[in-house]
Amino acid sequence: MVGNVLNPKEAAExxxxxxxxxxxEIREHNGQxxxxxxxxxxSEILKYLNSDPLLKFDLLKDVCGVDYYKKxxxxxxxVYHLYSLQNRCxxxxxAEVPEDDCWIQSSVDIFEGANWPERECxxxxxxxxxxxxxxxxxxxxxxxxGYPLRKxxxxxxxxxxREWKGYLDVIELAKKNMExxxx
Length: 183
Hints:
It is built from 4 helices and 7 strands; from the N terminus they run αββαββββαβα. It is α/β, with parallel strands linked by helices. Strand 6, helix 3 (115-125) and strand 7 (128-130) form a beta-alpha-beta unit.
């Protein structure tokens, strides 16, 4: 620690001291630090990072999902990019989420700005955020089937009559408007 300013490695060590059973790994890659944790106490860890006067990670920059399909288990991670304004310190927290029990606790009660990115993560990966105040699709229509950012999501489909109606409408409109194309 330089003066009263903490660096990411020191912040990671503080998390490890407070939650030793929850830390799976602390990894540094290209000068960026990631703390990989079990998902079960993610809310407690985020509250600690936010409220501890020495750490004070008061800005949630982003929440996103990662799919490690056929690369590692657990298949998913929810990644929190946290920033401490007082320490000018960025920390990446990666919480593991298994495919067969695909949920994690919402962080909206700690960081109000998590509302939208948690909904995006749910919409595109199918990761449920328990306790979220308004968990519903945000980018795709309510009747959309599947989660397009999963690595096993089909890139093309031939569902015929079962195809999403909105898609069929767009294709039909495009065919109808072809007469207006110039050559």
